[in-house]
Design goal:
It is built from 13 helices and 17 strands. The chain is of the alpha/beta class. The strands form four sheets. The protein has a six-stranded mixed beta sheet. A five-stranded mixed beta sheet has the order 14-13-15-16-17, sandwiched between helices. Helix 5 crosses helix 6.
């Protein structure tokens, strides 16, 4: 069965943070959203859409406002030849099988529909529909895609699982594993780790994995950001437990602050420019010195859409990683708009952190 997410209400079109919150919660509960559709309150085509969807074998999550939930229930009742009754302070179709505060589930023919009332600054009500299947995620680093598949496909056949491979960035593969009828995902992952030691992490949330590992080993990390403007920090602070491993980050956008806050030498800035391996090396050194963290990450580049030169075009990014015993810097030549270049930069920095100390992270 396919899962469709339906938003009814103007606020879900224009209130981006509310919409993204709802989508996040649905994705946490369900395996995959096949489509997302938006309707304004006044859209007369909504009835025809519901009539069509309720006569399929799909799963539908309808998110609307408290003001509109009774209207939606009325439309559903009309389609299903039902009437509404008062339950949990909601008017809902009488044939609903499950209902909780601001959420109810209706099974009609082969369709399963979960209607949810949601407004701004409210906690997401319980999602009553369940689309979970037996699956897992692994991440593979610094391994050629073709070689990884050549190694893992025979194991997938042996353990009766299917694989879907997604390229995140160069040197970072994400594999979605789904169990077939007699599949054993745990045995597949254990066997895969033996074939790819120090390259495979069994976790869907890499940032969560980093936080868990650093917390367990009582280690901390600090950041020095320029072109990413705090995005790296957001990747970590958006996750639970970040305060255990992150004391803070220095966003040094100007050369003056790179000098004053991170002790990047003025001569280095003058000779090599802010976007250089030499500068991100000193940025990571400054960050680890000022924080006394165990690891530091630094990034400086030209995210665009303007500001590039012939020698350093838009997409030129330098990143550095440092531990107590070693450091490494690389140059990237990224493509895309400003936001995508920033996102890619952060992903490469995260990858560098994981691979600089394989004994602890793998």
């Amino acid at each position: 069965m396919k899962l469709h997410l339906l938003f009814i209400g103007n606020k879900f079109i224009y209130n981006t943070s509310l919409k993204e919150y709802v989508i996040r919660k649905v994705e946490q509960k369900c395996d995959y959203i096949n489509s997302i559709v938006y309707f304004k309150e006044s859209d007369n085509s909504l009835f025809l859409y519901l009539e069509k969807e309720l006569n399929t074998d799909n799963k539908i999550i309808i998110v609307t406002t408290k003001h509109n939930i009774s209207t939606v229930g009325k439309l559903i009742s009309t389609v299903t030849s039902d009437n509404q009754v008062l339950k949990e302070n909601m008017l809902i179709p009488s044939n609903c099988s499950i209902y909780e505060n601001d959420s109810y589930l209706l099974e009609y023919k082969d369709a399963v529909t979960n209607v949810i009332s949601m407004d701004e600054m409210k906690k997401m009500p319980e999602i009553l529909i369940n689309n979970q299947i037996n699956k897992a995620t692994i991440n593979i680093f610094d391994e050629d895609k073709d070689n990884a598949l050549a190694l893992l496909n025979p194991l997938a056949q042996t353990h009766d699982v299917s694989l879907e491979v997604i390229d995140i960035i160069d040197g970072w593969l994400r594999l979605e594993i789904k169990s077939k009828k007699y599949g054993n995902i745990s045995n597949f992952i254990d066997s895969s780790k033996q074939l790819l030691p120090n390259k495979l992490i069994s976790a869907s949330n890499i940032i969560g994995h980093i936080i868990e590992v650093l917390s367990k080993n009582q280690k901390k990390v600090s950041f020095a950001e320029s072109c990413t403007g705090g995005l790296l920090s957001y990747y970590f602070t958006s996750q639970n437990g970040a305060s255990k491993i992150l004391d803070g980050s220095l966003i040094t956008y100007s050369n003056d602050l790179k000098d004053n806050w991170l002790a990047v030498e003025h001569n280095t800035l003058e000779e090599f420019g802010a976007v250089s391996n030499e500068v991100v090396e000193q940025m990571s050194e400054g960050a680890i010195n000022v924080s006394n963290a165990d690891y530091s990450l630094s990034v400086s580049g030209i995210a665009g859409d303007t500001g590039g030169t012939e020698l350093k075009p838009v997409g030129t990014v330098h990143i550095g990683v440092r531990s107590k015993s070693t450091h490494k810097e690389i140059q990237l030549n990224l493509k895309g708009d400003r936001n995508y270049i920033q996102q890619q930069s952060v992903l490469f920095v995260i990858k560098m952190l994981i691979t600089i100390d394989k004994e602890i992270f793998f």
